[in-house]
């Protein structure tokens, strides 16, 4: 692999993992079980429909688009369609960059708005971090404000002391977790929080919106995680015998090649059509998950992987709506 | 390890894996989930009770004891007790070695007898193989006659062409399989027959009654299996990309130490209190299963394994009765 292909995504990168349509061609004769995001999303969407049908008013999600990015616009339209199908209300509010902050504060204060998301990048760089932290914690469906991030990195799973209200987790990392649960990588017989103990996982992407939080979540659940980007490799784990309460980040001399050879699960999110994982490096029977809109695995992964998940987008949108339902309940209960 | 500690069990060894009582001391504070055989057996026993309660007559299992072995006698008593608890009928028929064959043929012909087992060794060596093949295929609850063995090794899963009647599998290997299913090592999202694809498993024991059939069953289900005894190491698997329809046995230069280091699951059955697996060699988060009546893992396995199964005996007896129920149905349907 060329390190320059591993783009580090900044804190303000574009919305991750566009919901792509399921690949049309049927699985070839290899032993690989191809699991589509739509299969995983279906149960969540059904639960969401049921939850909405029991409410007096459908929760309202507001999306702010201020970047004229056609990909973001497409993502927004797709979110709107999924909202409509599942019975939620969605309003896309387009505006100029300079107007965004004022409009955001209006929405923060408006009791009729239950969830807010912003299509990034707006300004790019740290100014977008400022925007992320400007979304009310009560309405932050993307889970990108500092409190939710802090709790996630510190393995704090609830907002309240009685462990009733779960923290909001960023949608794409959460989607990957839910996919790994669905496909049996999480072992349900083990205690919650330890269910990845024994799994070695490589995540190729260490962006602030997906790769880094995902590595932290996986390590908090007991995995040994190799996290790769073009600046190199680090390990996230809870130490030998998962003795630590939360993950720590360790320097490593392990190369990406060595990490891929050792991994039970390989998760990719490199936003480039040029980047492809070398199938020959992977373990026979690996679990391969791609959350990039680009295809980061070659076609021959279907003869080498036990399970292959080509995209995650539909689950990401389901997680967005799941976060919305939670936040609406927290608003009712005045949790935060 | 000392190779001399790895006793090769002959085709005629004593009944495997006595049902030991669950260890009394509670699991220490490590991350390990200790799974007792009683926990796995419970659901099977409930199903068996239900099956028996729906029958006009409780199936009758006959056990032949001709070796004056106190351990075999204890196992026989324990089988009798489990039969009684679950609603089955059990008759222990004690006799002299030289009388056994005649008494066996009587039981083969007696329509009131639904299942037959023999407590081995009787004569030892190949004369006991002759006895194993003398048990009627219609009543062989232990699955030790040639037809069942042949089908198992050749990955033939049904007795009939319409795939309605499953082959009988030897009880202890089957018990280990059911335990691995219960604890999530078998991945249910994958196609049946491929559910161990991606798993590397070491089995320390290559006896004809447990270790070799177990390695074959695991490899037939997609695992890469290292099989160890004091004569050395061999690999059982279906090749790269599990392309073969049934397992093959491959020569290997991999040492037991290397195999243990590479294994996701380590299964032991060494009938010696002296033999202990060196915990330091195992992967952090390994799955450890012991089917020996001796403790083949050290106490510190409870700080290194994700899941530890200290014994399998209660599941073995449940499988014996499950085979009995099947055979009784096959007798009704005149399958074989």
TrEMBL record, chains A, B:
Compositional bias ranges of the Pro residues kind: 18-29
Location of the Tetrahydrofolate dehydrogenase/cyclohydrolase NAD(P)-binding domain: 170-229
GO annotation, biological process: one-carbon metabolic process; purine nucleobase biosynthetic process
Family matches, as Gene3D superfamilies: Leucine Dehydrogenase, chain A, domain 1, NAD(P)-binding Rossmann-like Domain
Residue ranges of domain Tetrahydrofolate dehydrogenase/cyclohydrolase catalytic in the record: 38-142
Pfam family name, one: THF_DHG_CYH
Biased composition annotated in UniProt, kind: Basic and acidic residues: 1-12
The organism's place on the tree of life at top rank: Eukaryota
GO MF term set: methylenetetrahydrofolate dehydrogenase (NAD+) activity; methylenetetrahydrofolate dehydrogenase (NADP+) activity
One Gene Ontology cellular component: cytosol
Keyword set, alphabetical order: One-carbon metabolism
Region: Disordered, residue numbers: 1-29
InterPro entries reported in the protein's UniProt record: Aminoacid_DH-like_N_sf (IPR046346), m-THF_DH_NAD-bd (IPR035812), NAD(P)-bd_dom_sf (IPR036291), THF_DH/CycHdrlase (IPR000672), THF_DH/CycHdrlase_cat_dom (IPR020630), THF_DH/CycHdrlase_NAD-bd_dom (IPR020631)
Protein name as catalogued: Uncharacterized protein
Organism of derivation: Chytriomyces confervae
């Amino acid at each position: 692999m060329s390190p320059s292909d591993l783009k580090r995504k900044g804190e303000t990168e574009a919305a991750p993992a566009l919901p792509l349509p399921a690949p049309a061609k049927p699985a070839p004769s290899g032993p690989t079980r191809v699991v589509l995001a739509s299969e995983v999303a279906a149960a969540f969407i059904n639960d969401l429909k049921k939850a909405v049908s029991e409410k007096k008013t459908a929760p309202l999600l507001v999306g702010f688009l201020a970047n004229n990015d056609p990909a973001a616009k497409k993502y927004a339209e797709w979110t709107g369609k999924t909202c409509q199908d599942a019975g939620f209300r969605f309003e896309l509010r387009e505006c100029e960059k300079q107007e965004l902050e004022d409009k955001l504060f209006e929405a923060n204060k408006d009791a009729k708005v239950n969830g807010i998301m912003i299509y990034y990048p707006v300004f790019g760089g740290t100014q977008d971090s400022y925007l992320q932290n400007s979304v009310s914690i009560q309405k932050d469906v993307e889970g990108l404000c500092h409190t939710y991030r802090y709790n996630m990195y510190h393995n704090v799973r609830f907002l309240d002391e009685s462990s009733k209200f779960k923290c909001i987790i960023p949608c794409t990392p959460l989607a990957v977790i839910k996919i790994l649960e669905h496909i049996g990588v999480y072992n349900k017989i083990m205690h919650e929080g330890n269910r990845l103990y024994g799994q070695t996982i490589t995540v190729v992407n260490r962006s602030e919106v997906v790769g880094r939080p995902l590595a932290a979540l996986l390590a908090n659940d007991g995995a040994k995680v190799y996290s790769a980007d073009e600046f190199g490799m680090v390990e996230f784990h809870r130490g030998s015998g998962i003795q630590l309460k939360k993950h720590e980040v360790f320097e490593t001399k392990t190369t990406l090649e060595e990490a891929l050879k050792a991994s039970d699960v390989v998760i990719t999110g490199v936003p480039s059509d040029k980047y492809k994982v070398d199938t020959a490096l992977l373990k026979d029977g690996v679990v391969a998950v791609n959350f990039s809109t680009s295809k980061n695995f070659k076609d021959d992964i279907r003869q080498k992987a036990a399970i292959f998940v080509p995209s995650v987008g539909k689950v990401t949108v389901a997680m967005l709506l799941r976060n919305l339902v939670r936040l609406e309940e927290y608003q009712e209960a005045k949790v935060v």
